[in-house]
Here is the input.
Amino acid sequence: MAESTYQDINPVLSDIINRIRTLESKYNLLGERLLIVNQNMLAQYKKNLPEFKAINSDVKEIKSELFKLKEVINDLIKEMQFFATKEDIKVLEKYINLWNPIKFITEEELDKILEEKLKIRGKNARQKK
Here is the structure.
C-alpha cells in the first residue's frame, strides 16, 4: 500500500517540480528584462539630463522676465493714474479757445503795429494843421 501511495504521489511531485522550474525560468527572464529596462531608463535619463537642465534654466529665465514685465506694467498703471482725463482736456480746450492764443502777438509785432499807428497819427496830425 505504501508503494502505491508513492507511485500516485510521484507523478504529482514531478508535475509540481516541472511547474516550479517553469516559474523559476519565467522569474529569471523577468528579472533579466527588468534589469535591461532599468539600464535603458538610466541611459535615457543621462542622455536627457542636459536637456532638462537647459529647459529648467530657460523656464527660470522666462519667469524672471515675466516678473520684471509685470513690475513694469504695474508701474505704467500707477503712472497712468496721473494722466489727464477727458474732462481735464475739455476744460483746457475751453480755456485755450477762450484765450485764443493764435491771436497772441510778440513784442516785436506789437512794436511794429504801434510804430505804424503812430506814423499814421503823425501824418493825420500834420494834415490837420
Observations:
- The mean pLDDT is 89.
- The longest helix spans residues 2-80.
- Residues 50 and 56 are 10 Å apart (CA to CA).
- Residues 84-129 form one domain.
